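Standup notes
- HV: blocked on the assembly model, inputs below
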Amino acid sequence: MSGGTLNLLIGLAMGLNLLALGSSRLPSLIRSMSLQGVVLGLMPLLMEPERLDWRVVAVALATMAGKGIVIPWLLRRAMRAANIERELQPFLGYVPSLLLGAGGTIAAVALAQALPLLPEHAGTLLVPGAIASMLTGFILLIGRAKAISQVCGYLILENGIYLFGLLLIHSTPLLLESGILLDVTVGVFVTGIIVDRIQRAFDSLDTRKLTTLRE
Amino acid sequence: MTPGVLLSLAAVGWVVGIASGRWFSRIWLGFTLAGAAAGLGAAVMVLFGGMDWEWRSSVAVGGEPIHLHLDALSALFLALLCGVGGAGAMYARGYWSEEHYPASAPRGRAWWSALLSSMGLVLLSANGLHFLIGWELFTVSAFFLVTLDRQNPEVRAAGWLYLAASHVGTVCLFAFFCTLAARTGSWDLGPMREQVGLAPLFWAALAGFSVKAGVFPLHVWLPSAHANAPSHVSSILSGVAIKMGVYGIVRFSGWLPVPAAAGWVLIGLGATSALLGIAFAFAQSDFKRLLAYCSVENVGVILVGVGGALIAAAHGDEPWGRLALAGALLHVWNHGAFKALLFLGAGSVLHATGTREMSKLGGLWRSMPWTAGLFALGSLAVSGLPPLNGFISEWLVYLGLFEAALGKGPAAWAAIPAAIMLAMAGALAMASFAKAGAMIFLGSPRSHFAAAAHECGLGMRVPMLALAGVCVLMGLAPVLFWPAVARAVGSWHPAWVAAPAPDSMATLGSVHLGFGILVLAGAAWLWRMALGNGLRRGLTWDCGYAAPVARMQYTSSSFGGIVSGWFRWVLQPERKMHRPRGPFPAGALRLERVPETVLERVIGPVGVAILHVSTSVRRLQHGRLQYYILYVVAGLIALGVLVSMGGVP
């Protein structure tokens, strides 16, 4: 496998990060998130084609199905149930989010060069991509008010962690991989239900209104 | 009969007391008194019989085998516990009776027995874990006794303060016992003077036990708890409970090695407590608070003796160290007896008048002659006047200090200032009790509270008479008690065993006896003269007033004004004054209150500051999810920076 294709895909994922940060409409946010999931799902197939075994294929297929189809479907359902389309009042504006995300990406690349990596990972964008995705996830989690946008932020954060996990794909048991994927899916599923409940109880999906629950 | 059998009888008596106290007050009194008598018997056997009692069982409580141990030192405190515990139990039946306090009287009886049992457990335990369990039970039962009258918010506040302060002390004790167990590999307690590495642990023990003993400036809980508790509870708190702190200090300074500075610190703490305690006492206008601060002074006297003994032990000066320690231990008994008597007397006054404010009392000796006489006897004893017991123990401490001063060693540098401060404290103690006695019992009634007073019943008078008898007996025949104290000194320091009584002690006893007879004869002669010549009543002095009233008498704060002025730097009195102005003044006002300076000026502001900081930290918990995530990210980044700086491997 060529490092070039891999880096191209990671670069695509990083671009999708920025797209997610810049979009105010929820459907496009969900779309970029799920597309990123599919792109990442492809990666184990391309990384080391000569060592491909059924485990890796299973992980890739499950990831693509989960992140590309099941999770977006659950989120869209929740969105329709809550009857919202847009993030109206983000904590952090779209331009500052974008600037922060871009700065974060550059910082991630710089940081990865400072880290003591294995020689086979040093040439790829795997580590900077992972850090950049995690940062993007955090920015979305911190900067958005609607629960659905925060779920998307959480999923992008998870994508970053998944990228880190790819470094170890051959030494991580299949059970662990599928466990993580299942957790994420169930998490989103539960959030979908909770979003519906929040909407009914508070007549809004603004998580800022949840402060009355703090004690 | 062995001490073991008697101790089991005492345990049975007190446990039955706990169980029966709620419903059967007579059975409770019988069993509690029987338990106290059995415990006293065991203590006397150990103190005068010459054999320690020890019992190891294979039964484990909390994972540790039971190990009980009664040597002369713990027997000395056990005797005090049983004496005051019995007297207080008898007094409680009349004082905190079912008719007056239907809700709290049954509860009070059960907790009384619980307090006696738990303090007994503390004295007998020779295992660190069981010592801590006993200590905690003792603290909690004392809390419930202090707050018997819990409808009153002041009582509740005093109770909480007591509980909080006690637990600060208990934390130190936990640290002490746990570190000791970790260093020695066992919870078992016993003499381990040769393990020099354990010496620094003494400071933890000192901090923990000093809170309970009420050493200045850790005495903050003591005045309000003693003043607000029912009087029989105050008497056992002051007579016995704070002595548990003294017991801890004496016990562990004897069993464990101590740092070189320990004696100096103790003598300094003791002298400070004695002087400042009595200065605070003198400035009080609440007679139970006055008695409470006086306990701080007496604990100071005891600690001066113990500190002197530690210095002497460190320098190998056996003769004077033994005298100082014997004086301190004898003072434990003496203070227990006369302070319990004084608190019971104060209880009778409170029972009869319903106020603790001295400025509202006066002239009570006419309506309460027994209480007045017994309170006067207690006052003479606490002031350290011959021929009563207070003089004997303070004299022994002074004797030790003087010999140390004459020895011209380094100890003289501690002994001379300590003796001077003790002397000042003694003079102030006499002044304080002159004030208390004069305000409460002499003059004419200052308010309707005092005018309607009545003498206490026989059930309350008998325990007071018993305690007064002990005070007189120990004053007139101190030699009788010397062997017990000498044995306790011997179990503190193994090289100091079997000391004969100082020759002057026997002389002092006979001088006291003669003096007592002289005083009695003089009083009888005066009485005869007064009866023979007839009594003529008139105004004491009217200073040109056309119509003197009772309110023109000295008040407690005018009595103490000059001395409180000397100690204004520490007493920090709060004054409110409107001077009379013009030839026809419309009104004048002078209010004065002496705060508990350490609590209100030091601990209070520090507590408020801590509360302030923690409230502002609490603002971080606002419920906004986004910020919580930000905290996590900031934490992660900070950790990353820390790692990359090489701060953490």
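- HV (later): unblocked. The interface with chain B takes residues 91, 114, 138, 141-145, 150, 207-208, 210-214 of chain A (CB under 8 Å). The mean pLDDT of chain A is 81.
- Next: hand off to the docking folks.
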